[in-house]
Amino acid sequence: YAQKVVNSALASADEKTAANFYLAKTHYKNNAFDLAIPAFQRVAASSSNSQAAESRYLIAEAYFKQGRMEAAEKQCEETNEKSGNYPFWVAKSLILMSDIYVSREDLLNARAAIEAVLENFKDDASITEIASAKLKQIEKLEAESNRIKPPSNGLLELQNPGGN
Q1: Helix, coil or strand: residue 45
Q2: 58 and 36 in contact (C-beta within 8 Å)?
Q3: What is d(CA 20, CA 17) in angstroms, rounded to the nearest whole number?
């Protein structure tokens, strides 16, 4: 029915935007990202409400799930820029940015994005819970990639990456 509303000459712009949103969400749930993204883009372009903010975030997440990291990063930046009135979606976008950085093994920026969430979005327990779990994952990755061995004799030793 959403497609009928989108195509209807009798539907108002708001009705078409809402129909596009629900159509996009349906495609998104079915992992039909190539169909979801354009519908979300129509919502984001024609509205400034919470559905537009969520649409911007879900576009970024869809790109991420497709492995399109540059597009996902750019979309996260747009979400942060245009959805400032919706802190939940800004926080989710920063968490996604952290995931993008982790995928690139850029743990410093991944940590910075998560710490920004933990410092600035304390009012939403679900966001802080997700961010805290991501921070633990990043800390684990940092420990695994650390070239400094824990001291056994009180002195720090640098591991030789060549194995010698």
Answers
A1: helix
A2: yes
A3: 5
